[in-house]
From TrEMBL:
Assigned protein family: Belongs to the NipSnap family.
Species of the source: Paraburkholderia pallida
Superkingdom, natural source: Bacteria
Entries under InterPro entries matching the protein: Dimeric_a/b-barrel (IPR011008), NIPSNAP (IPR012577), NipSnap_domain (IPR051557)
Name of the protein this chain belongs to: NIPSNAP family protein
Gene3D superfamilies the UniProt entry points to: 3.30.70.100
Ranges of residues in domain NIPSNAP: 1-86
Amino acid sequence: MPEFLDVFDRLAMPIQLKYLGAPVGFFVSDIGALNQVVHLWAYESIADYDQRRTARDADPDWPAYLQASAHLIVAQENRIVRAVQFRSLGHLDGR
């Protein structure tokens, strides 16, 4: 995990920030299945998601991260989730 976090911080995060903005959250597992990373990014729409990720993937520095992290990633799962609005939470919008 320390090696992955270092590689991500040095090589991926600057590019992610450039195209995706700051993450909503970045977490590592502490209890349960270990050595898992969960990071959440907010998008205005599916079109916004597509545009930002396409731009990130076209960045000439992105392949360096993919190559440096390839041996560290065993499985990856991507999900699109939608914020739920609860009146009881007031202004909370899931971001």
